[in-house]
Amino acid sequence: MNVSRLWQNKLFAGTVGASYARAIERPAAARVFGRLLFGTDVDRIYRAMDVVADLPDGAAVLDVPCGGGITIAHLKPGQRVRYVAMDISAGMLDHARRRLRPEQRDTVEFVEASIDAVPFPDDQFDLCVCFNGLHCLPDPAVAIGEIARCLKPGGRLVGDFATRGQVRRADAYMVLMRASGTFGPGGTLDDARRWFTEAGLVVEELECSGAITHFAARK
Fold first, then answer.
1. Of 61, 57, 203, 47, which is closest to residue 129 (Cα–Cα)?
2. CATH class, range 10-218
């Protein structure tokens, strides 16, 4: 099954997708899972999500794929930004909506769409966050090209993805996930550098923590 179509499946979203969302919402469990399987420091992912809290009032951010909405929770109370949470899965969007704090209901816009065909004009966003998503896509390079198109000049892309060739046990797990249709082909550290540069982005950070690569790039 095509990876994108699988994530659109309601049964899949309600089982596998919901299980992932619940796991990442529980830092203690996520730390154990991340260390044992990916050899990574999961707290680094949570810290990176704080980038949305640094946005000034009036800024626009695209969160894709937003999953269960965990990055939204890193917004500061009273922060006045345009926050677009986008995901191909209606089920994950529903999960994210349920997690909103009351004051966030007028701040966050939910969009059901694919990351490889972002439904926004050029130069719209000051920041895009893309956590734990690129390894699930059929073609990460196309997705990054779409994100770059939608960033304003000087806008940033921040996120992470599971990376091949870093941790043997993680590689084996990713093979199983690809066979099930849950993950796409993913990529190596060198692949990631190529994705960003071919999209016209300047790489500011590209660093592995175990099998998870953390990245930041600027248009």
1. 61
2. alpha beta
